[in-house]
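Exercise 7. Given the encoded structure of a 320-residue chain, write a plausible sequence.
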């Protein structure tokens, strides 16, 4: 029983406390891959701890129900828990209600996760098919279509086949280098299967509403995948084209990609841009030094190692 309580306690502590540790380390995308690995490992660690705790509980229930009720009572009340208490009908009924409530909560979480994943997959596939049917192909760009919409936007949808969608409003404000940067960004999302990470983390956020690790984690994983795609696009098309493309799409105004990078960003554009764009543009304009990147990567790697090792270490130490 001590193992069960320790694992559940670790899972609860990590689920509520780890975001406060990871957000400062990952928010600016100093080490994108390590940041993604840390968030995903934290989520897996919490889920694994809870799953092992539930497994131990079921094994204890099947093997010795009286021992479980006695251990649970004494873990809460200590010496005040006498046989008259843990053998009473009211206490036994309370433990049964608690166990049933936990089981129902687990079933509800699994149902919410499955519903979100199925709905997301169905909508994505339908949108991809519709875009390929309705949109007009852009010459020289594989699986890329243009939709008539004055609002500037560019995005990718995973499907069979996948599609990259650019609106007519985006084409109106992007010059050729900027368009290549945007397409490289969206292609990176598809190539690295970022949609899978989005589906999994958003599903967990839907399954566990109000749990900071999953709700905040889904948002942070989304930010980091955008930054990872930015890195790929910047290497393929150059930072000036990518930065000005981000500003142009966010503000709806054409921005020249020629000249110095600083001069290409118009005054006031950051405040007018979408919520995620300012941090991404700032990161591209002022990349971290190698020493700072190495320090953040080391901190995230250490955090990742602790999160990965905690559940099995607790299980081995307390199960002896």
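Solution.
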């Amino acid at each position: 029983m001590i193992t069960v309580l320790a694992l559940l306690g670790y899972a609860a502590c990590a689920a509520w406390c780890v975001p406060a540790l990871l957000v400062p380390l990952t928010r600016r995308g100093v080490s994108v891959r390590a940041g993604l690995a840390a968030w995903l490992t934290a989520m897996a660690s919490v889920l694994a701890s809870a799953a092992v705790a539930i497994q131990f509980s079921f094994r204890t229930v099947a093997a010795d129900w009286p021992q479980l009720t006695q251990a649970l009572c004494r873990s809460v009340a200590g010496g005040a828990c006498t046989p008259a208490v843990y053998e009473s009908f009211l206490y036994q009924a309370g433990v049964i209600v608690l166990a049933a409530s936990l089981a129902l909560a687990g079933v509800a979480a699994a149902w919410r996760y499955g519903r979100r994943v199925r709905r997301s997959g169905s909508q994505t596939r339908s949108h991809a098919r519709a875009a390929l049917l309705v949109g007009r192909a852009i010459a020289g760009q594989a699986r890329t279509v243009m939709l008539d919409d004055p609002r500037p936007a560019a995005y990718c949808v995973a499907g069979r086949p996948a599609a990259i969608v650019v609106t007519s409003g985006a084409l109106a404000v992007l010059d050729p280098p900027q368009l290549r940067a945007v397409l490289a960004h969206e292609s990176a999302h598809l190539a690295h299967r970022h949609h899978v990470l989005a589906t999994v983390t958003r599903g967990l956020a839907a399954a566990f509403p109000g749990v900071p690790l999953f709700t905040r984690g889904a948002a942070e994983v989304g930010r980091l995948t955008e930054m990872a795609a930015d890195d790929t696009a910047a290497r393929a098309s150059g930072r000036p084209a990518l930065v000005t493309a981000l500003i142009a799409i966010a503000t709806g105004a054409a921005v020249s990609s020629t000249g110095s990078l600083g001069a290409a960003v118009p005054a006031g554009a950051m405040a007018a841009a979408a919520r995620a764009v300012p941090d991404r543009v700032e990161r591209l304009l002022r990349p971290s030094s190698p020493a700072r990147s190495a320090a953040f990567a080391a901190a995230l790697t250490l955090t990742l190692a602790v999160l990965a090792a905690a559940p099995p270490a607790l299980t081995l130490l307390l199960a002896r």
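Remark. Residues 204 and 214 are 6 Å apart (CA to CA). Students should compare their own answers with the one above.
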